[in-house]
Specification:
Aminopeptidase; Alpha-Beta Plaits; 2 domains
């Protein structure tokens, strides 16, 4: 008999009509994978062209309007009903099979970085996809092509969402804080906003495939990644003629330089196993060379493998910032934002993915990416549900750099898309036995409400006067309240 009408949620009218004429035979998962793969292969040229088009039109976080439109248009083209403008630029299409089972989210990231030195950087903004998010959208949509086939859906139980998420790269903090002040968002990263908005409330399992700078033909889940705390810092001095009367000024640039030296002096206190990384940049160094710099701004990340190590390093950084201000008599404003929680990915889900990859490209393509000191908001997702974050080869150069390039579009878009589609078939096929087992047995470190309380606890602002060090200034935000460990 045809699938019930509730099993057609998320499909356009034309696709529902096709869906209603499919007899839901209990097709085995291998047949469903074959059907999905054939559908992906039939659209492979268009999927790669779309990924290259996104490469050619990079947009940084919360500005990805064109990329989001391209993504939504493709979803509609393959018969999915897309919701747009989620967390400013996000796009979601969901399919409900009409049979009870877990809800699997397949994600891709919309945003680019800003690396003006890259040959393909946008001439106006400096934006460029040197983290490969363009292929994430491609492989997510490839999975959508395969999984939206009525013959495949007829074998599955549960729901699938395809989520194009904005702003994974935690950049342009001042711009994003402006969006927050305007009430357009609360958190400065896309998946955090998705969680806040309730878009992951009923999601049970999440998948995302990231590129790695390796030309290996491999799809390897990561084990864990650093978390991070973000800071925007402003040193306030006093302007004066830099040549004629510098003694009348207070040099905010000197305060910033001394603060960076103080941060460097702390590095030997960081334990190797904590994988601490602190990397500040100056975003404003002064107004004119003839005037003593009175307004100097910085942005920085404080990264570590555990929440405890992040907090320890962040406290040392704050001391160094205040020390720089005190040394020259400047004032420092420190704005702290949540950043990302450390990522701990689900090994059982990774093992299921290994099975799929072995069938797809052979055992030589299987493995693990050991702990990485980079950070992602998939770490936040991993704290509330079973999550995997595989890395696919097929790129060269240095990540986030001027020589990054995609070398194997078929691997990164088509094979990676098939791997996510086939993993979802394994999770939701045969009555969703494997998906239920993973979802039901996951001991989440945090509920969603606990997660929101934790990340909100990191939000704080502090103004501290180095000319009056006994006045500790006005601190807003209580700091994190975390009664448990993520290590």
């Amino acid at each position: 008999m045809p699938l019930p009408i509730e099993g057609q949620e998320g499909l356009t009218a034309r696709t529902r009509d096709h869906f209603s004429r499919i007899i839901p035979l209990m097709t085995d998962t291998s047949t469903a994978k074959s059907i999905a793969a054939s559908a992906i292969d039939a659209r492979s040229e268009g999927l790669i062209a779309l990924s290259k088009d996104i490469w050619d039109h990079p947009e940084p976080g919360f500005r990805e309007h064109r990329t989001a439109q391209v993504t939504a248009d493709f979803m509609r083209e393959i018969g999915l009903a897309a919701r747009e403008n989620i967390a400013i630029t996000g796009v979601i299409a969901r399919i409900n099979t009409g049979r009870p089972g877990p809800h699997v989210a397949i994600m891709g990231e919309l945003d680019s970085l800003i690396v003006p030195e890259h040959r393909d950087a946008d001439s106006a903004s400096g934006a460029v996809h040197v983290c490969g998010h363009n292929i994430q959208i491609g492989n997510m949509l490839a999975a959508a092509v395969g999984l939206s086939q009525p013959e495949v859906l007829a074998t599955l139980s549960g729901s699938i969402s395809f989520m194009a998420v904005p702003a994974e790269e935690y950049i342009e903090i001042e711009f994003r804080e402006g969006l927050r002040e305007a009430g357009e968002l609360e958190f400065l990263a896309g998946k955090q906003e998705f969680i806040r908005l309730g878009e992951l409330d009923d999601v049970d399992i999440s998948l995302l495939t990231h590129v790695e700078t390796s030309e290996l033909t491999a799809l390897r889940p990561a084990v864990s990644l650093n978390g991070m705390i973000a800071k925007r810092v402003r040193f306030i001095g006093r302007s004066a003629h830099a040549g004629g009367s510098p003694e009348l000024g207070i040099n905010a640039l000197n305060a910033a330089n001394l603060a960076m030296q103080g941060i460097h002096a702390q590095r030997e206190t960081f334990k190797d196993d904590d994988h601490v990384r602190v990397h500040p940049i100056l975003t404003r160094g002064g107004a004119a060379v003839s005037s003593v710099p009175a307004n100097v701004t910085m942005e920085m990340f404080v990264r570590a493998a555990t929440v405890e190590a992040m907090e320890d390093a962040a406290a040392k950084v704050d001391r160094a910032l205040k020390a720089g201000a005190m040394a020259v008599g400047a004032t420092v404003e420190i704005s702290t934002s949540p950043g990302y929680l450390p990522a701990k990915f689900h090994e059982g889900l990774g093992e299921l993915y290994d099975e799929v990859v072995t069938d797809l490209i052979g055992k030589s393509g299987v493995g693990r990416m050991p702990h990485r000191t980079s950070s992602t908001d998939m770490g936040d997702v991993s704290q509330i549900m079973p999550t995997i974050h595989p890395y696919v080869g097929g790129a060269r150069g240095r990540n986030h750099s001027d020589d990054f390039d995609i070398t194997d579009w078929d691997l990164d878009v088509i094979d990676a898309g098939k791997a996510m589609a086939n993993t979802t078939i394994e999770l939701l096929g045969n009555g969703a036995v494997r998906g239920r087992e993973i979802a039901d047995n996951f001991d989440a470190p945090l509920s969603i409400s606990e997660y929101l309380a934790v990340v909100r606890g990191y939000q704080a602002t502090e103004k501290w006067s180095g000319s009056s060090p006994s006045l500790l200034g006005d601190r807003k935000g209580s700091g994190p309240q975390i009664p448990f460990s993520f290590s």
